[in-house]
Write a structure and sequence with these properties.
Bound molecules: 2-amino-4-trifluoromethylsulfanyl-butyric acid, cobalt (II) ion
Order of helices and strands: HHEEEEEHHEEEEEEEEEE
Helix content: 25-40%
Number of helices: 4
Shape: globular
Low-confidence stretches: none
Distance between the termini: 31 Å
Structural class: alpha+beta
Largest sheet: 5 strands, antiparallel
Strand order of the largest sheet: 8-7-9-14-15
Radius of gyration: 17 Å
Number of strands: 15
Oligomer: single chain
Mean pLDDT: 98
Length: 250
């Protein structure tokens, strides 16, 4: 599949898909409380997404059973919500969601602290989010893809954390995952030349310890190999002539 350039009409739909997802994340952030289950969060999120007339894109994607990936503490991404996993004070909770609006996808993730969290956990959340902004400061027509990747790795590692290497960022549009694949790492070569109209989901995952990850028995939940905390931050962006527009923030 080749990297697609979205037309003005497609971009309008992606803006709307993004705006709705930004609202869903804001609303979910207000709902997270100690004592609720990760399945409660999924139910609320799915209701919100459908309330906006959208489809939750993760539900049944390659067999994934829920609308919101809820990944707690050492869980990196793709945590499966259950009614047994109860959120407690001090946890860090990553929520990843995607919506489809009139055939166009948006994809975004946030990590929230529940009540009082450790200073290290807060710093991990902040550094992971900040690395996204460092990365996308290179998202501009004429720049090259790997500039984004290198900036993310440099920022996370420069702050004493590690960045997950086994999972990638991706193009997005009429499909959740489109070309190009984007590493959160310095890699060989410059990567493709960025052009206005490309839409990308940039999603650094920062770990407090090793970058290495493992899969739980459910074959979905990705966890840190050493059990250290992990944070995730993601937005869908539109590359423009003089920078980028973040579609899933408001
Ligand atoms: N943001 C994640 C990704 O791009 C969401 C996919 S989760 C899945 O891979 F459940 F839908 F697979
Ligand atoms: Co994604």
């Amino acid at each position: 599949m080749k990297v697609t350039i979205k037309s003005a009409e497609e971009i309008e739909k992606m803006r709307r898909a993004g705006e709705i997802l930004a609202a869903v994340h804001q609303n979910l952030a207000r709902e997270i409380k100690p004592g609720m289950s990760t399945l409660d969060i999924d139910r609320l999120g799915e209701e919100m997404i459908r309330g906006y007339g959208c489809i939750p894109s993760f539900k049944n994607y390659c067999g994934y059973p829920a609308s919101i990936c809820v990944s707690v503490n050492e869980e990196v991404v793709h945590g499966i919500p259950t009614d047994e996993r109860i959120i407690k004070e001090g946890d860090i909770v990553s929520l990843d969601a995607g919506v489809i609006y009139e055939g166009y996808h948006s994809d975004a993730a946030r990590t929230w602290g529940v009540g009082e969290i450790s200073a290290e956990a807060q710093r991990l959340i902040d550094v992971t989010r900040e690395s996204f902004f460092k990365g996308i400061s290179f998202a501009k027509e004429g720049n090259h893809l790997h500039e984004i990747s290198a900036a993310i790795q440099d920022y996370v590692e420069g702050n004493g954390f590690s960045v997950v290497r086994d999972l990638v960022c991706h193009g997005i549009g009429t499909h959740l995952h489109e070309d190009p694949q984007i590493q959160n790492l310095r890699t060989k070569g410059r990567g493709i030349r960025l052009m206005a109209g490309m839409t990308l989901a940039i999603e650094p995952m920062g770990n407090a310890g090793t970058w290495e990850v493992a899969y739980e028995d459910d074959d979905w939940t990705v966890v840190t190999d050493d059990g250290s905390l992990s944070a995730h931050y993601e937005n869908t962006i539109l590359v423009t002539k003089d920078g980028c527009e973040i579609l899933t923030l408001r």
